[in-house]
Design brief:
elongated, mainly alpha
Length: 227
């Protein structure tokens, strides 16, 4: 094979690798930057493979600064890329204390979870202010005016109920971030992270059920892919 032909094949292989990694393994690129370059998940969230060599990867994030991730020892050929990149990712996963399952989507509430979301939203709105339990409010005039004793009770406990809702749902959101989102490589402060955090803040525990169902689906998909 002539030198120009080999150079052309090398460039084609590089191009395939770059396109494949950016399309299907962007989460791995993020982990490379987090582990090997010590970036936060937020800083690394838009990682993009810019160039590849037998001994290194050049990765940018947010379209600005570029970082070099060494491949040691260097690859012998481009056919080694798949196994070597997988090994780099496994090292990053272990070093970051992450799961090898990456969650890349949000699942909306359905069925009883949708009903629960409506219930919690109504309760939160109702107890957001004591004025909702006084004559003249839409809630009192349309519903609670018929049960004035209950309205007075709700007026009395409103600060306690609202505080409990805020504290419990805030604690659940923090736990969601630490026990699920970070573990499964959801970039902090990215759009997907905000969807799960907002969902947890609003509805609480059902968001954990949906998140865990996605993890189980991904585990099953990986297991089936091995057969």
């Amino acid at each position: 094979m002539s030198q120009p032909e080999k150079a052309s094949q090398d460039e084609a292989a590089k191009d395939r690798i770059i396109k494949h990694m950016n399309k299907d393994h962007q989460d791995s690129l993020v982990r490379y930057l987090e582990h090997f370059c010590h970036l936060s998940s937020f800083s690394a969230r838009n990682a993009k493979l810019e160039a590849v060599a037998l001994d290194s990867l050049i990765i940018s994030c947010n379209g600005t600064k570029k970082y070099t991730v060494p491949i040691q020892p260097p690859m012998n050929a481009w056919s080694d890329a798949r196994s070597r990149f997988a090994a780099l990712d496994a090292e990053a996963v272990a070093g970051l204390g992450r799961s090898d399952i990456t969650v890349k989507k949000y699942k909306t509430p359905r069925g009883w979870m949708a009903a629960w979301l409506v219930y919690v939203t109504v309760c939160t709105y109702s107890f957001s202010t004591r004025a909702n339990f006084l004559p003249g409010s839409m809630l009192y005039d349309s519903v609670l005016g018929r049960v004035d004793g209950f309205a007075r009770f709700c007026y009395t406990v409103q600060p306690l109920v609202l505080s409990t809702i805020v504290v419990c749902h805030s604690a659940e959101a923090i736990y969601m971030d630490q026990s699920r989102l970070q573990k499964h490589s959801v970039p902090r402060f990215g759009s997907l992270w905000w969807k799960w955090m907002a969902s947890t803040l609003t509805e609480g525990f059902p968001s954990f059920r949906r998140f865990d169902s996605i993890v189980e689906e991904e585990k099953e998909r990986k297991a089936n892919a091995k057969h």
